[in-house]
Amino acid sequence: MSQTLYINSISKSFDGKKVLDNISFEVHPGEILTLLGPSGCGKTTLLNIISGIVVPDAGSVRLGTTNITPIPPEKRSINTVFQNYALFPHMSVFNNVAFGLKVRRMPKDVIRDEVYNALELVHLSDKAHHKPHELSGGQKQRVAMARAFINKPNILLLDEPLSALDAKLRAQMQTEIKQLQQRLGITFILVTHDQQEAMALSSRIVVMSDGRIEQIGTPKEVYETPQNLFTATFIGNANIFDATIISRTQTTNTGGAKSATVLVENARGVIDISGKDGVGEECKILLRPEDMRVFKREDVADDLGGYMLGTVTTKTYKGATVELDIELESGKTIAVSEFFDEEHEELDEDVGDKVAVNWISGWEVVYYPHEI
Amino acid sequence: MRYNRQRSAPATTSAPATATPLGRRGMLRTGLLVLVSCVLIVLVAVPMFLMLLLSFTSHTPTEFYTLPFTFSGYGDVFTSVFASVLLSSVWMSVSVTFVTLAVGFPFALSLSGLRPRTRLVVLVLLILPFWVSTILKIFAFQVILSSNGMVNALLLRLGVIGEPLPLLYTDFAAVLGMVYVLLPFMILPVYNSIRKIPWECYSAAHDLGASSVRTLFQITIPLSRSGVFGGILMVFPPSLTMFYVSDILGGSKTLLLGGFIRNQYTVAGNWGYGSAISVVFMIVLVLVPLFVGWLGWRSSSFFSGGGVSEGRGSRGDVGASSLGNGGSV
C-alpha cells in the first residue's frame, strides 16, 4: 500500500539563510526512516516540506510516480504526529481520532468502527470519551498517532514523537511505535535530535547538519562506519586522535599496503589502510570507548611503546559496563568502556591509577585530511 | 467569581497578614489592605447599604423617602410598567450583545492574524477612544446621525436618498451608540482567547484534511468560546444600564431599565421604589454573569484558568467605569 517517497534536490532558504541545501534521498515503503541532527540542521523544515506545510525553493517531492510538490498538505496522503501532539483540547479522544474521517464525510457507523479499531491498536478503547487533558503524556501520544494513522496515509510523519515523555515511558513508546509500524505497514518518517532514539527505532538514519546530509545508513552502519567526523561525534561517544603513518606492515600483491603502523599519542598502533596511503601521511583515527582496552601500567610486561599512557580521572559504574575517563600524558581526555566478561570479572582500575591504553586493531575508523 | 472575591478578600485575608511577624513587607501589605478595604467600604459597601436601607422605605407625595419600613417597593417591582421596561431593555441589550459579537468576532479573528507590529497599532487604535469621555463620543454620534448630519449629507449627495433619513432618536441609533462604546469589551477577550489557541491545532486540522471553513467552525470557534462568554459578560450587563446612550441617541422614546430607575429618583421622587428595583436588578446582574460564566466554564474546562476568569476579573473595571460615567450624567 505504501509507495517509495523520492526527495529530489530539495533546497530551501528562510530570510536569505540556506536551511536545506540540495537534499536528495528516497524512503522505501514500510521502513522507519529517521532524520537526525542537531537543532537548526533543517530536519523539521524537511519534514514540513514532505507534509506540504512548507514549499521548497527548488527540487521536488515524488510519491511513487506522482510529483506531490504542488499538492497542498490537506490533499496529500501523508499525516503528521505533531511534536506536542496538537490534540484538539475541546474534543473527546473519540472525536479527535474521528476528525479526519469526518472531514471525508464517511458514514457514521464506519467512523465508529474505524475509530474503535484504531483505539484498540493503541490500547485506548476505554478512554474514548475522555478529554485530552485527562490523559497522561503517553496516552496523548497514542491518541495523536491513532488520529494520524486512521486516515490510512501512505506515509506517517512523526515530529520529535518522544521528546515530551520521561525516560521510562520513552523506552516503552519506542517499542510500541515499532510494533505499530509493523502492524500497519505504513512508512514512518521520524524527526529527532536524540541519537539513541534514532538508533533504537530506525531501519535507516539520515544524519543531517547545516542543511546537508552527512550520511544515510542503517543504525549499525552509521555507528560503526561513520563517513565523517560529524557523524562519528554526533552518534555515540567518540575519541578522535591525530595519527601519523610511520611504516607499512603488510603489503598486497599489487604493492599497496593493507595495514600500517601509526604513531598515536606517542604510541605505536596498527591500522587497516586502503592502499595508496604513504609513510608520513597524517590522518585522524576514530575509536569508540568500547574499542579501547585498558591495563594497569605495572601489569604491562615489557614494551610500553604500544600503549598510550595516562591516569584514570573518573570511574562510573553502569552495571554491565564501567566507564572510565582517562587523562593521557598529552593532556587529552579519552573515554573508555570496559565490559564484565570471563576475562574481566573484576575491573579494578581506580581513579588515580596509572594505566596503559591500546585498541583492538581493525576496529578503528580512519579519516584522511581530504575526507574531512 | 473572582469579581466577588475582589470585594470580600480584604476583610478575610487581613487577619492572617497581621498574624505573621510584622516585617517591613508585612506592614506594607497590611497597610495596603487596610487602605483598599477603607476605599471599598466608603465607595461600595456604604452606598450599597444605604440603597438597601432606602429600598425598604415608604413614599409620600412630600417626602422622597420616609419611615416606616415597608416591602411595598419590592411589591411594585413586579408591575406591568416595569415588566415592559425590563423587556425592552433586555431586548435592546441582547441586540447590542449580538451585534458586538457579530462584528467583534471577525475583527478579533483578523486581528490575531496580523503581523505583530500592525497588531499593536490596531490594538492601540482600539483602546485610544477610552481616553475620551463616553458622553462626548455619544454626543458626536448625535452630530453624525442628525438629519443634516454627515451620514445624511453623504447619502443625499450620492443621491441614494431623496430626503434625510430619520436616523437620530431611534432604537437603531441607541443600539449603534452602545455597540460603539462596548465593542472593545467584546473584541479584547475574544482576541485573547483566539490568540491562546495552540498554533499546532490549526496545523493538525489542516494535516487531517480540514478546509479553512471547517477549521473555523470546529477549531477556532469552539476554542474561543471562553473569550466569547467573557465578552458577553462584559457587554451585556453594562448595556442594560447605559440609559444615557438611549437618552441622547434614542431620544428617550423607549424607556430602558437605567432610565426607569433614574426617573424614580429624579422625576417620580419615589426613592424607595427606585432603590428596590436597583437591588433586584443588582442581584440579577450578579446571578446572570455567574450563570453565563458557569456555562462557559463548563463548556471549556480546558481553559479553567484562562479566558473566562480573566473576563470576569476585568469585568469589575467595566462596571466601575460605566458607574463612573453614569454618575457624571
Short synopsis of the structure:
Chain A has 372 residues and is an alpha+beta fold. Chain A contains 8 helices and 20 strands.
Number of separate strands of chain B? 0
Sum up the overall morphology of chain B in one term.
globular
What is the CATH superfamily label of chain B? MetI-like
User: Which architecture of chain B per CATH?
Assistant: Orthogonal Bundle
Structure description:
The complex is a heterodimer of chains A (372) and B (329). By secondary structure, chain A is α+β, with helices and mostly antiparallel strands. Helices cover 23% and strands 36% of the residues of chain A. Mean pLDDT of chain B is 77; it is low at 1-19 and 301-329. Chain B is mostly helical. Chain B has helices at 2-19, 24-54, 72-77, 80-112, 116-127, 134-145, 150-158, 171-195, 199-207, 212-223, 225-241, 243-249, 257-266, 271-299, 307-328. Chain B has one domain (49-323): MetI-like fold (Orthogonal Bundle). The chains are: A alpha+beta (372), B mainly alpha (329). The interface between A and B is medium-sized, with 25 and 21 residues.
Features:
heterodimer; A: 372 residues; alpha+beta; 6-stranded mixed β-sheet; 20 strands; 36% strand; B: 329 residues; mainly alpha; 0% strand; globular; disordered C terminus
